[in-house]
Design goal:
The chain has 204 residues and is of the alpha/beta class. The protein contains seven helices and ten strands. The protein has a single domain, classed as Rossmann fold. Helix 1 crosses helix 6.
Length: 204
């Protein structure tokens, strides 16, 4: 993983590390980390680095991709920039089908059996990513993988992806982020241990 991504995430506080004063997530979970990757879209120089990393990875690992799909809403800008760089069609996948009109879950033009890559900004448990992949599969698209900017690296996500027979990849994960923070003396060893223990606790 490119340490430049970790540098960007921490520099602009797209990922906050706060081991001495835990955040409260919407789910009620107390956490020393909070991810807000939407911050990156406001920094042209940083978002270009992220897009270039995605594009290089796709060209190397999924050269036969035919469609780029963004998850609504956080994945849409990234999918759009990536699709533009690769000169590929763009669609986006809603969290749920519209309740009116054509009741589409996937917006944009797709054809059966096209090879699709799904773009997320964050993979946590993998639940929403897998739901998006299932929507794509329901209209007979071939989902190659889910790509994201960041993941916490929970085993539960890996297990869910494996159970769904779905590949996934993130440009940066929590372990890499903590290693960068340690190398740059951004956190003490004690603070890093608190965050690592929190991750382990989530697994249990």
């Amino acid at each position: 993983m490119n340490p430049k991504i970790a540098e960007i995430l921490l520099k602009i506080k797209a990922v906050h590390l706060q081991p001495d004063n835990f955040f409260t997530w919407t789910s009620g979970i107390k956490s020393p980390i909070y991810c807000d990757n939407r911050q990156i879209i406001s920094y042209p120089q940083h978002r270009k680095v992220v897009v270039d990393e995605f594009v290089d990875y796709i060209k190397t690992n999924f050269p036969d991709t035919e469609v780029i799909a963004g998850t609504a809403t956080a994945g849409i800008p990234w999918a759009a920039w990536i699709a533009d760089e690769l000169n590929l069609p763009l669609v986006y996948i809603r969290g749920e089908s519209k309740g009116h009109g054509l009741k589409n879950a996937i917006e944009g033009k797709v054809e059966e059996n096209q090879k699709v890559l799904i773009i997320e900004d964050l993979i946590s448990t993998g639940k929403s990513s897998i739901a998006a992949a299932n929507e794509a599969k329901s209209v007979n698209l071939e989902v190659a993988a889910v790509l994201s900017i960041f993941t916490y690296g929970f085993d539960k996500a890996r297990i869910q992806f494996e159970a769904s027979n779905l590949d996934f990849f993130s440009l940066c994960d929590l372990d890499s982020l903590l290693q960068y923070a340690k190398d740059q003396s951004l956190l003490t060893n004690e603070q890093i241990a608190i965050i690592s223990q929190w991750k382990m606790d989530q697994e249990n």
